[in-house]
Structures are given as C-alpha cells and as structure tokens.
Amino acid sequence: MKVGVLISGRGSNLASLIEACAAPDFPAEIVTVISNNPGAKGLEIAEKAGIPARAINHRDFAKRDTFDACLSEALEEAGADFICNAGFMRILTDGFVEKWWNRQINIHPSLLPAFKGLNVHARAIEAGVRISGATVHYVRPEMDEGPIIAQAAVPVMMDDTEETLAARVLEAEHKLYPLALRLVAEGRVRIVNERAVISPAPEGLPPTLIVPTV
After folding, report:
1. Three-class SS string for the chain?
2. Which of 6, 31, 187, 188 is most deeply packed, by most CB within 10 A?
3. Binding site annotation covers 12?
4. 108 is catalytic
5. How far apart are CA 161 and CA 184, in angstroms?
6. Is 56 marked as binding a ligand?
7. What is the homologous superfamily of the domain 107-214 according to CATH?
8. Catalytic choice (58, 108, 121, 137)
9. According to the annotation, is 13 in a ligand binding site?
10. Do domains 1-100 and 107-214 have the same CATH topology?
11. Fold entry, domain 1-100
C-alpha cells in the first residue's frame, strides 16, 4: 500500500508510522508527506527518513475546495493510494472525503464518539472520566466521525493535568496508529453498514481495542 501522510505540526505520529513502515514485513510504504503548514517540524522528520516531503500552504488558496484539489493532485502525483492524517489540522471538504472514501484514516486523542473536536484532554479531565485514549477511524465528512478501526485505552489519574494526560495518550497513539495501518494494508478491514469489521482479530488482542502498558 502506497501511503501519503498529512501533517500540520511536530509529526510524532508520523515518526511512529515511518518506524513501522521501515520493517521489511510491514505491508505499507510512505511515499509522500504533505503539510499545510510550511513550518511543520514533521517535514524535517520525513526528509531525514528520505521520504519526499512538501508544504502546501492553505493560506495561499482563497477557497477551501481549491486547496483540497491541489492536495489531492499532489497525493496522486506521488503515487499515494491511501492517506493517513497524522495531526492534520484541517477540515477537508466533502468532495475530498468522497474522492478518498475508505482510503483515508485519522487518529484522534479520545475514545470516540466521546470528546470530538479540540481541547480533548481538558474536557476529559473536567468530565471526570476514568479512562481516555485514542481512536483510529476512517474519515467521513463530519468531524471525528467514521468507522472505528482500533482504539487504545489509558487510565486518567486523579492528579492528571491536561499535559500529563496528553503525554500518556500520545504514547498510546504511537502504538495504535501503526497497528491500525497494518490491519488496513493487510486487507483485514471491511466496512459493513458503516462499521469496520476486522478479520481475523490481531493476535492476542480484541479486534477493536488495545490497552497498552502504562
């Protein structure tokens, strides 16, 4: 599977995907990294790994759909047939999502459908939940919607701050995203009635949930 990774910032999940794809038996290859932010540190991570990387600044486009069309064209020119959003802080147009339907996944730092959107960790702490985590899901036009491929759960400690919880969830994300991409690339994920069905289940783990050691 030829993967294009979309980023906006530091690229920590990108780094975990690059490391996973470097394994000889991993069924996916990252062919391009694109950021809407020219200053994204993740571009440097990609370049150091020898992966073609570029910025397409969304501020250079008057309309959202024009930017999305340019982004899609760049992905296709790079040979990507699948997209991983890894901290890509843009809401994509319906047309883009439809063009890449079931060929684009995203990682979100909560156990969806809980805590969609921004300020996730502060909201989780304020709500008093005991478990939070991360979700990898297929992208749909609605924000943080779509069939769930895999989730990772982490505890919320009584003395957690937004920063400490974010760090714990991020550690789980780095394990979760490569697992989810492997499942998809191996052809083990089917969408049935807008639900991701995984067969067979990952060895030693339930099909839609992993709980990393923390």
Report:
1. CEEEEEECCCCHHHHHHHHHHCCCCCCCEEEEEEECCCCCCHHHHHHHCCCCEEECCHHHCCCHHHHHHHHHHHHHHCCCCEEEECCCCCCCCHHHHHHCCCCEEEEECCCCCCCCCCCHHHHHHHHCCCEEEEEEEECCCCCCCCCEEEEEEEECCCCCCHHHHHHHHHHHHHHHHHHHHHHHHCCCEEEECCEEEECCCCCCCCCCEECCCC
2. 6
3. yes
4. yes
5. 34
6. no
7. Formyl transferase, N-terminal domain (3.40.50.170)
8. 108
9. yes
10. yes
11. Rossmann fold (3.40.50)
Token digits for 8?
Answer: 């906006």
Q: Report pTM.
A: 0.93
- Tens digits of residue pLDDT in 171-203: 999 999 999 999 999 999 999 999 999 987 656
Give pairs for 18-22: CB < 8 Å, separation 24+.
Answer: 18/45, 18/46, 18/49, 18/51, 19/178, 20/178, 20/181, 20/182, 22/49
11 is in an annotated binding site: yes
Give 53-59 contacts, CB < 8 A, sequence gap 24+.
Answer: 58/90
> Which tens digits make up the pLDDT trace of 77-91?
999 999 999 999 999
| 91 is annotated as contributing to ligand binding | yes
At 161, list the tokens: 């701050």
For the chain, the structural domain boundaries read 1-100, 107-214
